[in-house]
Amino acid sequence: MPIEEKTFEKPLELDQMFVNMGPQHPSTHGVLRIALHMEGEVITKAEPDVGYLHRGIEKLFENRTYTQGLVLTDRLDYLSSMHNNLAYCIAVEKLMGIEVPARAQYIRALVSELNRIASHLIFFGTYGVDIGAFTPFLHAFREREMIMDLFEMLCGARLLYTYMRIGGVAKNLPEDWTAKCREFTGFFPKRLKEYDALLSFNPIFMDRTANIGIISKEEALDWGLSGPVLRATGVNYDVRKFEPYSFYDKLEFEIPLGQTGSTWDRYYCRMREMAQSAGIIDQCLEALSKQDMPPDIIAKGVPKILKPLKGQAYGHIEASRGDLGFYAVSEGEFSPYRMHIKAPTFINTAILQKILVGAKIADVVAILGSFDIVLGEMDR
Amino acid sequence: MGIILEKTPIILNKIPGGTIALTTADFFINWARKSSIWPLTFGLACCAIEMMAAYATRFDFDRFGVFPRPTPRQADLMLVAGTVVKKMASPLIRIYRQMPEPKFVIAMGSCADCGGPFYDSYSVVKGVDKIMPVDVYLAGCPPRPEALMYAVQKLQEKIGKMEIKENSGATAGQESGARREL
C-alpha cells in the first residue's frame, strides 16, 4: 500500500514536515519513492516505497522456457546486463550439470568486467549530477560509449545484450576486437586519474560526501549488504574471490576496501574497482590469445529445448551492485517451477530507513546516490 | 536565425539597416515551438539510460534544442522511457496533467508502445497510450539514441503542421488529459 500523509498518528507540529521524494525525481535514478518525515531540516523517519517498476519478472520466468528466460534477465539490472546473463546461466548450468569450455569462461569474465566499468561509469556520471557537478557526466559517457562500441561489435546491442547462452556465449570475439579492447584498457587508467582530479578529491565534493551516511561494519553485516556498499565499510567480501566462477581464481586482482563506510568511501570503492577491472580485462585478453585454447569452441552443445531433471540450484556472482543470485527450482518441466532473484540493490536499499534518520534533507540525495540503485532489479 | 528560407512562407523586403520579414503566425509560432522542445527528465527503466546517452557526449541532444528540465511545469515533452507498471500509472497521469499546454508525448521503447517483452505480465500497462495520448511511437528494446533523435524530428514535423485553432491543435483530448480506463 502506498504510504500516505494520513498515516500520521497525530497532527503535525509546527516544525514538522512531510516531504515526498519521488517517484518522479531526477535524483532517484528511476522510480523509487522515499517518504521523509522531518523536524526542521533533520529527518526523523524515512520510508522507502518500492514497486513502481514491478514487472513481475519472477512470475514470467514460469511461463518461459529456460532459453527464453535469458531475455528477461537483461531487463533486471539494465546497467549490467552481462552480469544478469551470467548469474542466470550459472544457475541453470548448475541445475543441468553443464560444464562450460575454457574459452567461454574467459570471455564471460572479460565481458563482465567491461560491463562493470560501464556500469560504474554511469554511477560516476550521475552521482556528479546529483551533487551538482555536470562535467563528470559528459566525461563518463565519453568513455562509456567506447565500451558500448565494443559490445556492439560483439553482439549488436548497446544496452541489453543477451550475449551469454546456457553452456557458453553466443558469438566468438570478432576480428580487430582484441586490438580495440586493448586500446580501451590502455587509455582508461589515465582517464581514472583525470576523474580523481576532477571529482574524487575535489574539496567541495569531499566536504559534501565524506562524513555522511556512515555505515559501521556490524550494521552492514546485520542488514545483509553486499557489493561496494559492504566493502566500503571494510568488510572483505567479494564473490569473485570467495566463491570463484568463470576462472576468476586464475586471474589476479585486488578487492578495494573502504575504511569508514561513508558516502565518499562507497564512491571511491567503485572508482578503484574500475582500475582493477581494467587489469582483469588485460589478463583475460592475454589468456585468450594463448595457443593452448581451441579458438572456435565457445559453447558446450546443449539440447535445443532444455528440460532439467527435478531439482534446485543457486548460482550467484559479484555483479556491479553486489551479490546477485538466481535460485532455480525445476520440477522436470520445460520452464522453471520457480525462479527467485536475490537482487543486491533491494537488500542494500533497506538500510536507507536507518541511516537517513538524523541526516539533513540536503544530504538525502548524496546518500541515496551513493547506493547506485537500479529499480529494475529492485522491483523485478 | 536557423530558418530555412526555401521552405518558408515568407516575404522579405530589404530596407536600410536590415531586412523586414513577413510571415504567417502559424509558421512563426511553430518554428519557435519545434526548435526548443524541452523534455521532462524522467526515466522509468532501461530506455532511460539510452535517453541519458542521447543527452550526453557523442550524441549531444542540445543541437536540436532539446534540453532536459527536471520539473513538469517547465517541460513540453514527456519521454515515457521504459515500462509503465500499474503502480506508476497514476503518478504518471498526475505528472502529465502538471505539464503546461501544448504538451507532447513520445512513447519510447517497446514497453511503452505495447508492453514489449512483458506482454503477458500481470502488473505492466500494455502501452502508455492506454492512459494518455501519444504523439510518436518509437520501437526498439531499447531504441538507440539515434532513433530517439529521429522520433524528436518526427515530432518537430508534427509541430510544424499545427495551426492556430480554438483548441491547442495537438492530439485530440490532450488538453483535458482525457484517458481511457485502465
What does this structure look like?
Chain A is built from 15 helices and 8 strands. In chain A, 46% of the residues lie in helices and 13% in strands. In chain A, strand 7 and strand 8 form a beta hairpin. In chain A, helix 4 runs antiparallel to helix 5 (135-155). Chain A has one domain: Orthogonal Bundle (Cytochrome-c3 Hydrogenase, chain B), CATH 1.10.645. Chain A is of the alpha+beta class. With 182 residues, chain B is an alpha/beta fold. Chain B is built from 5 helices and 5 strands, in the order ββααβαβαβα. In chain B, the strands form 2 sheets. In chain B, strands 3-4-5 form a 3-stranded parallel β-sheet. In chain B, helix 3 (86-98) links the parallel strand 3 (77-81) and strand 4. Chain A binds chain B through residues 2, 23-24, 26, 29-31, 51-57, 59-60, 63, 71-72, 75, 78-79, 122, 125-126, 137-139, 141-142, 144-145, 148, 158-160, 375-376, 379, and chain B through 40-46, 48-50, 52-53, 56-58, 70, 72, 82-83, 85, 87-88, 91, 95, 117-118, 120-124, 141-142, 144.
Quick overview of this protein structure:
Chain A has 380 residues and is an alpha+beta fold. Chain A is built from 15 helices and 8 strands.
Spatial gap, N to C terminus of chain B: 45 Å
The SS-based structural class of chain B is alpha/beta
The CATH first-level class of chain A comes to: Mainly Alpha
Helix content of chain B: 25-40%
Strand content of chain B: 5-15%
Lateral strand order in the biggest sheet of chain A: 1-2-3
Number of domains of chain A: 1
Low-confidence regions of chain A: none
